[in-house]
Sequence to fold (262 residues):
Amino acid sequence: MTALDDLSPATSSAGSTSPVLAGSSLGRITSNGSTARSISSVIRARLETAGAPYLANDNVADYLLEGELDLLQKEVADRVRELLRTLLIDIDRDHNTEETAERVAKMYLQEVFKGRYHRQPKIASFPNVKQLDEIYTVGPISVRSACSHHLVPILGNCWIGIKPGDRVIGLSKFARVADWVFSRPHIQEEAVMILADEIERLCEPQGLAILIKAQHYCMKWRGVKEPQTSMVNSVVRGDFRLDPNLKAEFFELVKQQESVLG
Ligand SMILES: [Zn+2]
Fold:
């Protein structure tokens, strides 16, 4: 009996086995013949039953029970340890890689991909009591992500333009929600849409524009090895889409913010 079994609803002795989690196909047979179910397969079964998407850039926090993230981190560390061994790295003798598996697991679940496993930071919105309707931009906000194809970094900046609606959020909150959205494996084209959806949900602006300019390490570090190429993309919604002047004003403001950086 491993620690994983203890938390697995399907192996609980309390008789409250969830139909969601039942089924031997999820189990794996251990050397002593008992069926141990990995925590990832327990959570995956829950996601499948709920019909919840769990693509690389989806958030699955709602489907994790108390304590499961710690167990998942341990399981990921076990798998990374196997990966290192498979790469013929002598982790038993090489003190540099001795705890690499634990570090990588922690980095994925708690840092660079935390936007998949943790809930959105609490972001309060307030009524737009002064009925502000002038556009403003926030940026540059650091973009730190990883490409879904190679899991290597995407690093860059993003700018957000808002024409306020009925609700407003604090400026720093844009950076918080962007960090949460980008801390997942992504492709840049989808990242900008997901960020736009979250911001619309938080403050229901009359207009929203987002510009992202980022460098992809799968192009810099490997593949074509082009160190200077960056990818720029944007999304414009609401009044920014309807009014070409407003859209032009957003890109002009971004240019000014970029020039402040020198
Ligand atoms: Zn890539």
Observations:
- Residues 68-86 form the longest helix (19 residues).
- The first strand starts at residue 28 and ends at 29.
